[in-house]
Amino acid sequence: MDKEKKYEFNKTEEYPKMVVSFGSTLTNKTASWRTFKPVINEDKCIGCGICWKFCPEPAITPTNPPKIIYDYCKGCGICIVECPVNAIDKVDEKR
Amino acid sequence: MIEIRLHGRGGQGAVKAAEILAKAAFYDGKIVQSFPFFGVERRGAPVQAFTRISDDPIRVHSYIYEPDVLIVLDPTLVGAEGIDIIEGIKDNGKIVINSTKDPSDFEFHNKNGVQVYTVDATAIALKFHLGSASAPIVNTAIVGAIAKVTGLVSIDAVKKAIIDTIPRYKEENAAAAEDTFNNVK
Amino acid sequence: MKKVVINGDFAASYGALSAEVKFIAAYPITPQTLVVEKLSELVSDGELKASFVKVESEHSAMAACMGAEAAGVRSFTATSSQGLLLMSEVLHWSARARLPIVMSNVNRAVGPGWSIWADDTDSISQRDTGWMQVYVENNQEVYDAILMGYKISEDPGILLPTMVNLDAFFLSHTSEIVEMIDTEDVRKFLPPYDPKYKLDVNDPHAFGALTSPEYYYEFTVKIHKAMIKAKRKIQEVGKEFGDKFGRYYDMTEAYKTEDADIILVTHGTIAGTAKETVDRLRAEGKKVGNLKIRYLRPFPDEQVYEHLKNAKKIVVVDRSISYGKEGAFYSETKASLFDYNLFVPTYGMIAGLGGRDVSIQTIREIVKTAEDNEPNKIFFIGEKK
Amino acid sequence: MNQEKKKLTITIPEEEIMQAGHLACQGCGAAIAMRYALKALGKDIILDFPACCWSVIDGPFPYSATQVPLFHTAFETAAAVASGITNGIQAIGNDHTTVMAWAGDGGTFDIGIQALSGAAERNDNLIYTVYDNEAYMNTGIQRSSATPHGAWTTTTPVKHFKKGEKKDIDSILVAHGIPYLATTSIAYAEDMVKKYKRAKEIRGTKFMHVFAPCPTGWKSDPAMTVKLAKLAVETGVFPLYEVVNGKYKLSIKPKELKPVEEYLKLQGRFKHLQKDDIDYIQKKVIEKWEILLKKVEMFGE
User: Fold this and answer.
1) Is residue A64 a part of any domain in this protein?
2) Do the strands C288-293 and C252-255 form a parallel or antiparallel pair, or are they unpaired?
3) Residues paired with residue B95 on neighbouring β-strands, in sequence order
4) Out of D7, D26, D215, whose CB is closest to A64?
5) Which of B60, B106, B126, C371 is the most exposed place for a label (fewest CB within 10 A)?
6) Which of 10-49 (A) contact C at CB < 8 A?
7) Does A1 touch chain D if contact means CB atoms closer than 8 Å?
């Protein structure tokens, strides 16, 4: 299943009978919510997995080093606060 | 269509008597309807129940105001304060009363053709240990009398209806009905 | 086929049994209690293989039915009066979720004062929930309406719940002959419930999510269209039921209306008493007929017009009143006639409120009132004046 | 170079069932809670949500973040709908799928308590989760009976902040005699996952009380969500324990409780409190903590 597929209903006949979901929220890129950007300093990263574990989106990959998926990161900053070795920097968004 | 009204007291089984009567008529091939007076019955309080028996579909859903047959399960209801047992009874109607008295003891006997019949259903209920000595359940006994007096239902159908309806002491209840069938005055 | 003498509440229970419902959630309320008692017995005896959840309120009864039905499980509940009113929120929810639940509602008055007796205020006040509402005349129809209800409700083109309304005591506690259909034959009429979308781990969907103004409108239109479509479905199912089992049903039932000057418009048990009265009045030379309306929703506008168009007087009987206006059946009937540009003298008769008996004598009084009075207003029949 | 590094340390199930793109606020504790719960419970699950933040978070029609079967329902019906689902699927032979009601504190402590009590009394086979953010957050931060003493909400303004204690929902549920109850916190992911896995294996009603900070309603920095949840445990404001068939067991026992002020001062909702107020809260926290220790002692394993 393509989880990023968009579904559109332009006429009453095209609608399902009841309010029923088809796609996933991956269609909804929440990057625009961010006012700053967490950036992982891969040299400092110890691969503890804590940033991945606490991400509410989730927008961090379970890789070593982890990668932030910026399409979805809302910039809450939990990963920055929770990183035990301060390996995640808070960088202003350049718009 | 024959319309029957039953008078009793809460706990005596007037509603069940109406139902047994309806079922018996149904077993005899009739169209039937039975229902209680819709209230909040309490033990001892006067209650009413109704049965309609017909050869054609019964379409009416209302109380019975002009009964062809009246049944009184408790003799103390006759003349009781605020109750007019014979209200609306049709001319030439029949009244079956659970009583040790003679029909002629009742003033409405033989008026406008109304016929009163009596049967000591209480004694028969006690004989078959139906209910307790202080509160005998007379409903099955009296249905036997109705079968005899009115000819609306056969005694075999009555016995079958009792066995299908009464949860316990089925045989004793059926025997009580047969007893009254044979002893109604 | 098996004929039994049972009360209306038992007829509802046996309807659920014959429909082989798999889930029941219910809460007791007079005069519906016999339904829950009988179903408890049927389930505990193993005669009905279903899960019966004895919930702590009517609100939860309907909520639990929604959960089961959303999981694709045929569900049943029964209620009355205050219980139906407590359910009101979830009646809307279940209909908008397109869950074809069937429920029997014993029409009982609402308090205060406390009244356990017949009155339509409970279901009439739930008219706009999206539930189909059928009003039945006798216990056979209680049983049949539940079987037909599932067939109509579960139709993939409809998917709306059905409320089977029966009068308190006049049906719920009245014993009549009911012919029950053999399970094998019911199965041929009513296939198992198999919805396209359900709570299924192999095909996961979220139901009832936040719906923005961009989308909500069309869902509402779809419910309306389904309700309109249900009119034909009700007729088709009523005919199929008749062909299979010998008892035909339609949205309305006309009785001696063709040549009638005065046509009574009735529903529920009053319809039966009215038919009986029609025969007696006709024997006295009065050209009276009766139109029984089975469905309040969807409302049979076309049939109402067809059957009433030649009447000189139309007399609608309601067992409830919309305070400050009139009875609902009266409003609906008039609106149907207006849609066809038919202007006939009409009379709104309020009768039987709170269980007051509607007898042959009452129907006679209704007809007499229409004969003796100017039209286009309501009359309180049986009121102590 | 990266290939030479070992794998990332993974302490909770790796598979993501909940998808990104959902509509939770930045730093939402309830989003983290759902992520862990689904990781623990897997995809053989049916959810129902009453009105709560999650009725928005999951996403508008026609999308869903959770990607498992889900029924949105009316505010007070979470437990009743779950009862219907679980008994319904059992009636058609499905006794493996987990059914979980997922509700906020308003939908649980207040409007939904009747249906919850009904389900618990019947011991219907379901998990009931309350994600507790201590107020009606979805409607805009109004007090609920889960709001703690001292807190500001829009219906308990600063001059008339919430007076009176938070309702002890857990004791109420324990009193129903359910087989399993656990308090959990989003700051203790492994503990939470372990408890959900345990709940999944038990038949009957399982009550999961998840502490889920709400930066929007608590007027706290979204980045501090996990920190606050941790402090709630460390100060004794929200102790973590399990009650298995009536037996209490502490999950985390701090050697010494941190001062409650450390927890309170990070939240705008408490910033109006004077020293007396904080002392009072501290006193109550200690009192309740000691009662809990006594329960563990008296009714422990």
Assistant:
1) yes
2) antiparallel
3) B70, B116
4) D7
5) C371
6) 11-12, 15-22
7) no
User: Smallest Cα–Cα separation from D232: which of D255, D202, D266?
Assistant: D266
For C30, other C-beta atoms within 10 Å of its C-beta total: 18
CATH number at residue A71: 3.30.70.20
In this predicted model, what pLDDT tens digit does every residue of C53-95 receive, in sequence order?
A: 999 999 999 999 999 999 999 999 999 999 999 999 999 999 9
B133 versus D121: the higher-pLDDT residue is D121
Give the helix ranges, DSSP H, for B13-108: 14-27
Q: Which of C148, C189, C186 minimizes the C-alpha distance to C295?
A: C148
Q: pLDDT band at residue C250, thresholds of 50, 70 and 90?
A: very high
- Whether the CB of D81 is below 8 Å from some CB of chain C: the reply is yes
Whether residue D61 and residue C215 make contact (CB cut-off 8 A), yes or no, is yes
Three-state DSSP at D176 gives: coil
Domains of chain C: 2-245 (3.40.50.970), 252-380 (3.40.50.920)
Residue where the block lists tokens 């088809």: A22
- CATH fold label, D29-299: Rossmann fold (3.40.50)
CB D126 within 8 A of CB D206: yes
d(CA B20, CA C180): 20
Q: Do C219 and A19 touch (CB under 8 A)?
A: yes
Instruction: Place D1 in a pLDDT band, splitting at 50, 70 and 90.
Output: very low
Burial bucket for residue C155 (CB in 10 Å: 0-12, 13-18, 19+): middle
The beta-carbon neighbor of B60 closest among C116, C355, C360 is: C360
* Token reading at B39: 């209230």
C162 — phi, psi (to 5°)? -125, 135
CA-CA-CA-CA dihedral for A75, A77, A82, A84, to nearest 10: 90
Structural domains in chain B, CATH included, are 2-181 (3.40.920.10)
Report pLDDT for C30.
95
The partner residue sitting opposite A21, judged by closest CB among C209, C221, C225, is C209
Establish if A45 belongs to a structural domain: yes
A21 within some domain? no
Whole-model pTM over 0.80: yes
Q: Pull the structure tokens for residue C245.
A: 């089992």
**Are the Cβ atoms of A18 and C197 closer than 8 angstroms?**
yes
Q: Which residues of C touch D89 (CB under 8 A)?
A: 68, 71, 73
Domain extent, residue A50, equals 29-92
Q: Are C107 and C167 in contact (CB under 8 A)?
A: yes
Domain presence at residue A12: no
Q: Where are the domains of chain D?
A: 29-299
Of all residues in chain A, the one with the smallest CA distance to C205 is: A21
Of the candidates B48, B40, B119, the residue with the CA atom closest to the CA atom of residue B77? B48
Query: Residue range C121-132: average pLDDT?
Result: 98
Please give the distance of CA D271 from its chain centroid, rounded to a whole number.
24
Return the residue matching tokens 């005349």.
C137
Q: Considering CB atoms only, which of B32, B34, B59 is closest to C276?
A: B59
As a whole number, mean pLDDT of residues D39-59 equals 98
How far is the C-alpha of D65 from the C-alpha of A26, rounded, in Å? 8
Phi–psi pair at B6, nearest 5 degrees: -115, 135
- Average pLDDT value over all residues in chain D: 96
**Residue corresponding to tokens 């579960």:** C154
Q: Which of B20, B59, B65, B160 has the most C C-beta neighbours within 10 Å, making it the best mutation to test the interface with C?
A: B59
Number of domains, chain A: 1
Residue D35 to residues D12, D30, D232, Cα–Cα distance (Å) = 11, 9, 20
pLDDT at residue D5 greater than cutoff 70 = no
Q: Where are the beta strands (DSSP E) in B60-160?
A: 69-72, 94-98, 115-119
Three-state DSSP class for residue C108? coil
Minimal Cα–Cα distance from A40 to chain C, Å?
Answer: 35
Put simply, the answer to whether C176 touches B58 (Cβ < 8 Å) is: yes
